[in-house]
Specification:
- The strands form three sheets. Strands 6-5-8-7-10-9-11-12 form an eight-stranded mixed sheet.
- The relative contact order is 0.15.
- It is built from four helices and 15 strands.
- By secondary structure, it is an alpha+beta fold.
């Protein structure tokens, strides 16, 4: 007594049909009928702030030029751990070595971490996303600097999401304009856009069995061994040192 209970009442454990839902002790759903409830008011300032989370200048191909050798993150099929595949100085499609970059997008610092990625499979174009754990900066992988810039700029233009680009043209995209992570569109609309983007990424060569966006989003999570990419470059997670 005295506690606010949440309950789901079902008919039986085999069919598991939901008959009633109680929220904070109040019957809110009764055999499919939802009780009216007031939508919470959200301050206009917070709405604006949630839709304007990209503070980064327009990018050019020159922003992705890197002449020094950089670490190569080796992807492991079916895993989110990575391996250290040494160093590279340029993209080499024949060896499945692509350029990868993480662009700081919250505070207009201009920081761009650059490295290389092996095992993704992309043969041309670029793929970018603002779902990039845990800091959710822009992460982009590509076969050339121009398409990497175009994909990242599309993310900025849309205030977040996913972009698949070839020769500067947007082949597929998902707009996630709420904090760069969420959409106000319906589930079916978002899913259709996502499936098309996956299809286009596969056309550009992303390896079979790889989720082109989920996989990419973990490449910037610097708590999982072995190598990851931050806005300051490739880091060896175990040693907590940039390489």
């Amino acid at each position: 007594p005295g506690y606010l209970g949440d309950f789901v009442i079902i008919d039986n454990f085999r069919a598991f049909n939901i008959e009633q839902v109680y929220k904070k002790g109040i019957l809110m759903v009764d055999h499919g009928q939802v009780r009216d409830f007031p939508a919470p008011e959200v301050d206009a300032y917070l709405v604006e702030r949630a839709h304007r989370t990209f503070h980064v200048a327009t990018l050019t191909a020159e922003d992705f030029v890197e002449k020094r050798p950089r670490g190569v993150i080796g992807m492991v099929p079916g895993e989110i751990v990575t391996t250290d595949v040494g160093y590279a100085s340029a993209v080499d499609i024949s060896k499945d070595i692509l350029k990868i970059a993480v662009i700081e997008r919250h505070r207009h610092t201009g920081h761009i971490g650059i490295g290389y990625l092996k095992g993704y499979g992309l043969k041309e174009g670029a793929v970018a996303t603002s779902i990039s754990h845990d800091s959710h900066n822009i992460i982009v992988v590509g076969s050339n600097d121009a398409d990497m810039a175009a994909a990242a700029n599309r993310i900025i233009e849309n205030n977040g999401g996913i972009a698949v680009v070839k020769n500067g043209q947007i082949l597929g995209e998902v707009v996630l304009k709420i904090a760069g992570l969420m959409s106000d569109k319906s589930l079916t609309e978002v899913n259709d856009a996502l499936e098309n983007a996956k299809k286009q990424a596969a056309v550009l060569g992303v390896s079979e069995g790889i989720d082109p966006f989920m996989t990419l989003s973990f490449m910037s999570l610097p708590v999982i061994p072995k190598l990851r990419l931050t806005t300051r470059g490739i880091i060896d997670v175990a040693r907590q040192q940039y390489i």
